[in-house]
Write a structure and sequence with these properties.
It is a single chain. By secondary structure, the chain is of the alpha+beta class. The chain has helices at 2-33, 43-56, 63-71, 98-122, 129-145, 185-191, 195-204, 221-231, 246-263, 268-306, 310-325, 328-340, 347-373, 376-384, 389-419, 431-442, 446-478; strands at 73-81, 86-96, 149-161, 171-174, 177-181, 207-210, 213-216. It folds into two domains: 43-243, no CATH class; 268-478, MetI-like (MetI-like fold). It is built from 17 helices and seven strands. A five-stranded antiparallel beta sheet has the order 1-2-3-5-4. The longest helix is centred in the middle third of the chain and has 39 residues, at 268-306. The protein is elongated. It starts with a helix and ends with a helix.
């Protein structure tokens, strides 16, 4: 009967899983079908979209860059459907040859900017990047007005989005459809005469030759930023719009967040090192906590059974009342900042001491309950064999009590592991602190904190499984 019920349960589980897979596949197929463009652009409408996008690009305050954009002409000659939700605009362009003008006059521009920088400094005036840019704009603009033009062809991609992202200033609304021209670095650099290449060259220029001397300008950010701002187009995003189907988009976002929070810069090491620290604190605190708990339990039981050790019993009772009556975080802050920090004790041992004291109080009550559960006849039997009280407790009572409370002690270890997460309050680089460190770097709340929670959850599940195995072994031994 039991075998038939198990088979029936297994078949139901398989059927449920198969049904879930089918439903998910259908949803993904429908979602993929919806990912096709809902509007087809022609030459005229595509030209309108490009014009609206071009009007948004001159957000820069640099007169030079604005002048280049105004003098650039882009004409759509044809439209072609892409593979997904993108459409390809075949365009011709005519613009100023900015890069060659910059390259031919680079030394003069840098020397002019540096001379202006020195003059302002000598006059006691405050020099910032804006002043440097405004000074150079007057020099660069005449050069560009007389510069040769370049012409060519370029394919521009236009993507259809589900909705307009809040942080994207370059979306264009056309016939109730959200469109986004892909302003890649290559596209902007080509169509606007090399503005992006000029910006990169300025960024990589660390020295200049001035009056026969080589001047290191790497750390003169005011100067380099002022020159760069003349050609800067820092208001556009070169990220490719994500037009994936909904579920694939969610997966892509997850992968991007995962890479940003853990892979890029090897930030996963913060979690790995923090996990090692958390396990070290937990193991050491559990070891000392068990020893302390057993000592306290023996003192209390001895007083209850014999009436002896009154003063130690009162001390233990006070210790148990204080520890069990206050939050572990407050205990940690008091032990470190009030007691141990003035004595020069480091953060890690302070955390171990705090959690050992906290765990010891609960272990003491667990062990005391286990000892009190041992029948008094066991003690009388030991005494009849000629054993004194200490020998009876050591050889007969404690081993039986330990076996009875072992599962509870294992559960206390799991609780201790989770409670150790507050160690970051005193600056210990534990697992929680590792997650918060990643969060402070990436400004992402979801991924780092979820990762910390998942790691704790996995460890707790493993320990819980081991506790269940231990309990089954003990039950078999009893039988």
């Amino acid at each position: 009967m039991k075998s038939k019920n198990e088979k029936k349960k297994l078949l139901i589980e398989i059927a449920v899983i198969a049904l879930a897979i089918v439903i998910f596949a259908v949803v993904v197929m429908v979602d993929t079908f919806k990912a096709q463009p809902s509007v087809e652009l022609n030459v005229e409408s595509a030209q309108t979209v490009l014009k609206k996008t071009g009007e948004k690009i001159p957000l820069t305050v640099a007169y030079t860059a604005n002048f280049v954009i105004e003098e650039t002409q882009i004409k759509v000659t044809g439209v072609e459907a892409g593979e997904g939700r993108e459409q390809i605009l075949h365009c011709t362009y005519s613009t100023i040859d900015v890069f060659n003008v910059y390259k031919a006059n680079k030394e003069m521009l840098f020397n002019d900017a540096y001379a202006f920088y020195l003059e302002e400094k000598a006059a006691g005036n405050m020099v910032n990047a804006t002043k440097v840019r405004q000074h150079l704009d007057k020099t660069i603009t005449p050069l560009l007005e007389n510069a040769p033009r370049i012409e060519g062809e370029y394919d521009v991609l236009v993507y259809e989005l589900e909705s307009a992202p809040q942080d994207d200033a370059f979306v264009v609304h056309y016939d109730d459809t959200v469109l986004r021209v892909y302003l890649s670095n290559e596209m902007v650099d080509t169509v606007y005469g090399g503005l992006v290449s000029v910006g990169k060259d300025i960024k990589n220029t660390k020295t200049l030759s001035y009056e026969g001397k080589t001047i290191d300008i790497e750390k003169i950010n005011t100067l380099r930023t002022g020159i760069s701002d003349c050609f800067g187009l820092q208001n556009f995003s070169s990220a490719k719009p994500d037009t994936s189907p909904y579920f694939l988009g969610l997966w892509n976002d997850f992968c991007d967040d995962f890479y940003l929070n853990f892979i890029k810069g090897a930030k996963w090491t913060y979690l790995a090192k923090g996990l090692v620290t958390t396990l070290e604190i937990t193991l050491l605190a559990a070891l000392f906590g068990v020893l302390l708990g057993f000592v306290c339990a023996i003192i209390r039981v001895t007083h209850d059974k014999t009436g002896k050790m009154m003063i130690p019993d009162q001390i233990v009772r006070a210790y148990l009342a204080i520890i069990r009556g206050t939050p572990v975080m407050i205990q940690l802050l008091i032990i470190y900042f009030v007691i141990l920090l003035p004595a020069g004790v480091a953060k890690f041992p302070s955390a171990v001491i705090c959690f050992a004291l906290n765990s010891g109080a609960y272990v003491a009550e667990i062990v005391r309950g286990g000892i009190m559960s041992v029948d008094n006849g066991q003690i009388e039997a030991g005494r009849s064999l000629g054993l004194n009280y200490i020998q009876t407790m050591y050889h007969i009572v404690v081993p039986q009590a330990f076996k009875a409370v072992l599962p509870s002690l294992a559960n206390e270890f799991i609780t201790l592991l989770k409670e150790s997460s507050v160690a970051f309050y005193i600056g210990v680089a534990d697992l929680t602190q590792g997650g918060l460190k990643i969060r402070s770097i990436t400004y992402s709340n979801f991924m780092p904190l979820i990762a910390v929670a998942v790691i704790y959850f996995i460890i707790v599940m493993i320990l819980t499984k081991l506790v269940k195995i231990l309990e089954r072994r003990l039950r078999k031994d009893e039988r």
